[in-house]
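Data availability (excerpt). The following record was deposited with the supplementary files.
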Amino acid sequence: MILAPESVSKFAGLLADTSRAAICIALLDGRAWTASELAAFAGIARPTASSHLNQLVDAGLLTELRQGRHRYVRLASTELAELIEHVATIAGQPAAARSLRSVGVAADLAQARTCYDHLAGALGVRLFDAMEAAGLLCQAGGLTVTAAGRSWFAELAGPAALHSGSRPLVRACLDWTERRTHLAGALGASLYQQLVARGWVLPRPGSRAVRVTADGELALATLLGVRLAEPHEARLARA
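Predicted structure:
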């Protein structure tokens, strides 16, 4: 395949605008957003947000969903979400937080968050490391899921989880805060869905951040030997 410089330049130009970049970052949570919601997130007027959304939809970065009179948009693919995370990694650390609230939000995101439809942050990296150590994943010659890994995922999420269609079963995604790999692909998405469905991980309202419940801490320690920095009971006693 021949790469066209014009296409690369056009794509980079779309993300070069701060407001459009903010919109794409907001959509990394995997949800569909309205123009009003994205305008508030980016700190711009709604007509300005609509103009940016039209450009992103026309370029194929976003897909449009309509429900009645309401218009929603979301990122066009998981690959695009991972690319944005990679760009954030290469670009460097974000600007320093300016308030206690923003410090807390940044800490929550760094600890555990979603990258579109899979887990990222320190938790995502720990899970990846644990799965590799347990022989469920192998990085020799490119990331693959082992026979033991297939059995493990089938037991956790059912055999259907191993049928990914055209989507890669597993993909190594470079985490922008940890600068190490977390698990993407169909099994990365399935793992996150299962952790939420079992009540082991809960999304934080209005944020990409997630938190691990007490049951989740015990389950992750049992399944993969993953332990958080401080036991849940100790945190409760300290609080």
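Summary of structural features: Residues 95-103, 230-239 have pLDDT under 50 and may be disordered.
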